[in-house]
């Protein structure tokens, strides 16, 4: 799952991604940073967070990644 973000006036864009686990998030970050460098974007700012499932349950968040069950998050 991806939620896309954009701030046009500062020419920034990003996303909130949901991954099954931290290793998948870290691997995607490496691949994505390399891909963006190929487009002439030299710097990627990223943070990886764990999902707070208890609070997410309170707001009835749907936590699925890649069609699987509950997942871990990354952004």
Automatic annotation (TrEMBL):
SUPFAM superfamilies per the UniProt record, alphabetical: Dimeric alpha+beta barrel
Pfam families referenced in this protein's UniProt entry, alphabetically: ydhR (PF08803)
InterPro entries registered for this protein in UniProt: Dimeric_a/b-barrel, YdhR
Protein name, entry field: Protein ydhR
Lineage: Eukaryota, Viridiplantae, Chlorophyta, core chlorophytes, Chlorophyceae
């Amino acid at each position: 799952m991806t939620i896309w973000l954009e701030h046009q006036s500062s020419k920034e864009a990003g996303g909130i991604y949901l991954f099954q686990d931290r290793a998948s998030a870290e691997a995607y970050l490496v691949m994505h940073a390399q891909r963006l460098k190929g487009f002439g974007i030299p710097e990627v700012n990223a943070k990886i967070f764990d999902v707070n499932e208890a609070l997410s349950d309170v707001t009835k968040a749907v936590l699925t990644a890649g069609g699987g069950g509950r997942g871990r998050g990354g952004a």
